Amino acid sequence: MIGYYLNLALRSLKRNKVLTALMVLAIAVGIGASMTTLTVLHVLSGDPLPGKSGELYYPQIDPQDARGMMPGTMPPEQVTLIDGTNLLRARQADRQALMAGGAVPIQPDASALDPFYVEARYTTADFFAMFDVPFLYGHGWTGIDDEAHVRDVVIARELNEKLFKGADSVGRTLRIGGTMFRIAGVLDSWRPNPHFYDLTTGSYNYYEQAFLPLQTALELRFAKNGSNDCWGNGTGGVVGGAYPSATCVWLQFWVELDSPARAAAYRQFLVRYSEEQKALGRFQRAPNVQLRNLMQWLDHNGVVPSDVRLQAWLAFGFLLVCLVNTVGLMLAKFLRRSGELGVRRALGASRRALLAQLLIESAVVGTAGGIGGLLLAFFGLWLVRHRSSDYAALVHLDAAMLLVTFALAISASLLAGLLPAWRASKVAPALQLKSN
Amino acid sequence: MDILPILATLRRHKVILWLLMLEIALSCAIICNGVFLIAQRLQHMDIPSGVAEHELVQIQQAPIVPPPDRYARAQEDLAMLRQIPGVRAVGMSNQVPFGGSSSNGNVMLSPTQPHPTLSAAEYFGENLVQTLGLHLIAGRTLRTDEYVDADVVIRALADGSSEGFPMPMLVSQALAVRLWPQQNPLGKLIWLAPTASFRVVGVVETLARANAYNTATAQYSMIIPLHMGADKDQSYLLRTRPEDRPRVLAAAVAALKRADPARVIMHSRSFDQIRSDYFQDDQAMAGMLVSVIVAVLLVTGLGIVGLASFWVAQRRKQIGIRRALGATRIDILHYFQTENFLIVTFGIVIGMLLAYGLSLWLMMHYELPHLPGIYFPVGALALWIIGQLAVLGPALRAAAVPPVVATRSV
Fold first, then answer.
1. Nearest to B405 by CA among B335, B332, B320, B319
2. Which end of chain B has fewer beta carbons closer than 10 Å to its terminal beta carbon, N or C?
């Protein structure tokens, strides 16, 4: 029966090509726009470390002076160098890393290459294991290396391609800002999006090319990137070579805690630490701590640009207009065929059979609209990728979104077909036959 | 034209009528709010910078190994850049309007104030008023002998010493009005840290911040006479005639590279480029909104064409009868045009309510002001026009129905 209805549907659609084309086009444009914006939203609000993100936490403590303290305010979004170092050395979590963003000058040996700056991350040993960073060659450095200020560097695959044509460069030397470093490891492609561990350098499409031990970088006075927030007489390193002063927060501190119980214990530790520091006179405020996990941290920072959400809503509003439009057109189309439907009814077709026939016709329109919508979505995403927003390059359609597109197109057109089909299947056969 | 018979006819086609009205109402709500959002974006993109935008170029350079004396290096670079033919002024700054990466200070009106009054941009560097082309509207500009090396100030702050303060500073007019409404700002003091005070010696008309996201605070800026070293984050600014910009930029980059081949040029661009880079997302959003509005109008128009055609086809016989009874072609044409006008008007009335609701929802979720009344007629006008255009074809076809149709049985 379905085959027969399909045949009928195709015949009917072919009979009025313009109307059919209008319906297919309306659905395709609506679906194309919605899927484009939905894909952007889906990509931008994704989990950068699936499976791991629940165990990663971002501790916040409040070292600010008592001036201007108001109950209920959030602690600063980063930590001071002193607190970061204290928390790192306390080793109360399974893993912990203290870090800051920066930029370092690379001086290649090959005279064909001019020196250039790359984005860098100054961090501590656990960074790589904690964030499941994949290595192509070699490995990171150890906690002992951190304390010893070793001149080790881990470089990204891209930089390895540029400097060493992709060869295993572990053990070779690299001159950075006038100092010789030993390459300890080369990362495989690793592009977490959003750039969750430091949102102050830009949330999307920001990738470091070099990873250096934090203490080494600080000793060599390498330039820092990202934001800082000071109080009292603090100055935020307005001059190169100077780091923000002791009353500034400018580093990020992450911990790995494998269970909620461990997380609760760590929160207690942070409260204890704040109390200790207050007793020592360094902190002036009552303990004010936060311990958010990775996704909560992203959510708290609202990393998905609000424009992207607005665009998605707009596209869905547009899809709604397209659907109402399709309902109207289908209704017109089906009612016009009242005569034909009356004949089918008179020959014994049940109302249900008529309904099935008309819904199959809607589904055919929906499938065509879905295919058209998919093509338009590919085109839309291509347009988005050619924009210069920082997230533009990330946007791709994955298998899940592909399925969503088709499900949306077909269910939308079935929904649009429901009312017209129901109205049309109610034709009184006698009346239709008589009037003809 | 008699409206009552049209209404009587419409009452017999309730479902299609409601669908059309719903579509028009939705379109109206989207168009009213969409046009408003576009206006918001364009207004945002129009924030004045206060600088001579078409005459400025920026070069950001970074040394590979820090020079022994960063301040001396900066002065050498500036002297060299001044020699380039066509350069009218040379300056140096830690940030530029719309440059993105910003330096801001918390402003206090007394050293013991518990909360800062506001945050304002801190512009440091040489010769900014002349190079940027700022308009001084009160007081005087900064004198060369008032400049201090940034390191000196940082050291004083770290020691908690108030030696050397208060320093002279310039403020933007917006900041002066906000801090001292209806008072003369000249001679007033502000604190950027408990021991660091500054005295206002001059007011510039406009100077936008590097991160001018919020229109209300976009013009809160201060200029402080600090010498900056030749570091990675500082910019050399050159002012020249608009047509000389590409040549001056190339010559300046070449001269800097010649003086120290080991340095890296991080950015070299005109101020026009800075502005368009900064507002590219707003530009893209405005473009997206325009396409959505055009698409909505197009889809609605095509929907009206489709349904009107259906109605004309369905009523061929009635049209024939009316023609046979003496109605002219114009009468038939007007009938369909009036019918469309009525339906669109009903739709617009519902659409206004929807638009208002949508605007309330947008206000809740996106920091947007109230939808001004002026945008309601915009949506209505667009839909009336598209409705009349869309119905014209089917209505002409209806008018062409010959009276003889009335006599045919099928």
1. B320
2. C
